[in-house]
Amino acid sequence: MDSIIEMDKKLLLFLNSLHHPWLDPVMFYFTQTFFWLPLYAFLIFLIFKNYGTRSWYLLIGIAVTITIADQITSSLMKPFFARFRPSHEPSLKGAVHLVKNYFGEGVYKGGLYGFASSHAANTFGTAIFLWLTLRPFYRWTAWIFLWAALMTYTRIYLGVHYPGDIVVGALVGAACGWMGFKFSSWLLNRSNVSSVTPN
């Protein structure tokens, strides 16, 4: 386990070192949920376009996905493992590139603990759910995983998560996304709708 943790630190320092001044504000804003609201609105529009009134069952599924993913990582894993984020790790002080907090003073550090990444869990949970929901209509929806990868990479760039935090968070999120989709299917079946299928 110690060797895995050490490799995680080395990989973080390598990836985090690939920074540039012009990228700092870009990555800071990319990591913010509100920045992607137009994308979320567009995807929700596609759901309603293809599923009609049944879309509400899918929105409930998305809410369940995000709630479970966030609670597992934030309320259970982070306090249980109590692993400092790189930005709060004393042994990495001065070695991690941190970015200015463009919404306040000082630098952006995130919360105290970081394992596992809630950003990764929520993002990959949403990506899996939307991919399962929209793939019958649009083959290009697989590109949503590129968005998920970019969104989670920002956490390493900003120095607030180790790669291991991201990987485990993404796995948790993927499982939650699949469960959320299955829950939506169950709701539809309970409402005498055969399955989550196109109109």
Task: Walk me through the topology.
Layout: H1 2-16, H2 23-30, H3 37-51, H4 55-81, E1 99-100, E2 107-108, H5 118-134, H6 144-157, H7 163-190
Antiparallel strand pairs: 1-2
Helix pairs in contact: 2-6, 3-4, 4-5, 4-7, 5-6, 5-7
Structural class: mainly alpha
- Principal-axes geometry comes out as globular
Helix content: 55-70%
Global mean pLDDT: 94
Which range does the strand content fall in? under 5%
Main sheet makeup: 2 strands, antiparallel
Keywords:
199 residues, mainly alpha, two-stranded antiparallel sheet, 7 helices, 62% helix
What would a concise description of this structure say?
The chain has helices at residues 2-16, 23-30, 37-51, 55-81, 118-134, 144-157, 163-190, and strands spanning 99-100, 107-108. The chain has 199 residues and is mainly alpha-helical.
Describe the structure.
The chain is an all-alpha fold. It is 62% helix and 2% strand. It has a two-stranded antiparallel sheet. The chain is globular and about 60 Å long.
